[in-house]
Amino acid sequence: MLLGAIADDLTGATDLALTLSREGMKTVQVVGAPPEDFDFSAADAVVVALKSRTIIADEAVRLSLDAARRLIAGGAEQIIFKYCSTFDSTPEGNIGPVAEALVDMLGEKLTLACPAFPANGRTVYRGHLFVGDLLLSDSTMKDHPLTPMRDANLVRVLQQQTKLQVGLVTRDAVAKGAAAVREAFDAAIGKGDRIVIVDAIADQDLREIGHAAADMKLITGGSGIALGLPENFRRAGKLAPVEATRSFSAPAGDAIILAGSCSAATRRQIKTAIDAGTAAIKLDPLEIAAGKTSAETVIDWVAAQTEGIPMVYSSADPEEVRQAQQALGREKAGEIVEHLLANVAIGLRDRGYRRFLVAGGETSGAVVQGLGVEAMLIGPEIDPGVPWTVSLEGDRSVALALKSGNFGRDDFFLKAWRVAR
Ligand code: ADP
Questions:
Q1: Which of 39, 62, 164, 184 measures 20 to 30 Å from 356, CA to CA?
Q2: pLDDT tens, 365-421?
Q3: Domain span at residue 360?
Q4: For a substitution probing ligand 1, which of 14, 258, 262 has the most ligand atoms within 8 Å of its CB?
Q5: Quick check: 208 and 228 in contact, CB under 8 A?
Q6: 277 and 358 in one domain?
């Protein structure tokens, strides 16, 4: 293991894991700090998903330090602290406090902070963060319910969150390339800076910054900051060529589609799959509540299908969802379905099913928890943002594609299986 990362939320962790995987690192994503006996040897990079973006700063620091210690003990030579590309934080943190604690723990003179993600319209220029054509403070982020961002000047924003001196490396240096960025880092250290915001307006900028930061033990930023880091390890002879890391193999066994997302994209994907002949059973929360549908009845139905890959779905249009919620309560309706789909997944795994395509963020969480999956190796991307993964549990290992509701094109449920081959 070469590179360890700590992400302050789950989808952010997947985003970073995918970036590292695309750049040719065998990447494992772990939910929460890896357990003491975790086997790091399967990965070049390990991304720990925390849920620390909006918790109390002290707790975010404690969790992040704990994760960093495990990653370093596992072999990590460099740590990434990953946060949102819109710098989601409050005047109390948690970006400043966590970065400060990590840079102190690692005994580093300087770290950098760069949330730029040009592919998604997040760019940093003269220390100011843009979302598309708008300053962060003019974007919808100004009204975010938990982390309203009312100042686009990241030097000022970050300085408010930390007692470390915050400086700036502008695009003037970044445009000249890695050597100029390294000089700018030295100049910043000379001025007493401990964290520098670094401008980046294009992927090539991020690659130059990554190259310049080869010797930094701590790097902080959005997922884009990881673009240039794998190449550093490759240059140092520590990482195999990109092609050699593409060794994804899905465990052999039957396959199933489980959909609990009611979002428009998922409903289109369900329709496309049914139109193409996919055998499907629709779950009704009211029938589950009445005991007419159970995990056993669903598993029996699945086991009786002989053609293709069957689909179990509860996805319904807004009017049906409203009726179920009215009868059962909003939370109860959701829980009942999540619980049933998780139990179906457990039952099918016990019957030898090894490939699960799950639609829905909360639904995926319930299935992953039900199956007891703690760590997943990132595999090939099916559609942007959704990779196949393989859980790391020896003979109980399963292939999982976890799709958040609105992701994926209409033929996602059909195409995913071709990618897993
Ligand atoms: P998404 O990623 O699209 O937001 P989620 O799985 O996160 O999907 O959320 C969908 C929620 O809706 C889950 O809690 C799920 O159990 C619930 N749900 C699924 N089907 C129904 C239904 N027919 N009626 C009411 N709630 C439902």
A1: 39
A2: 899 989 999 899 999 999 888 999 999 877 789 999 998 888 899 999 999 999 887
A3: 254-419
A4: 262
A5: yes
A6: yes
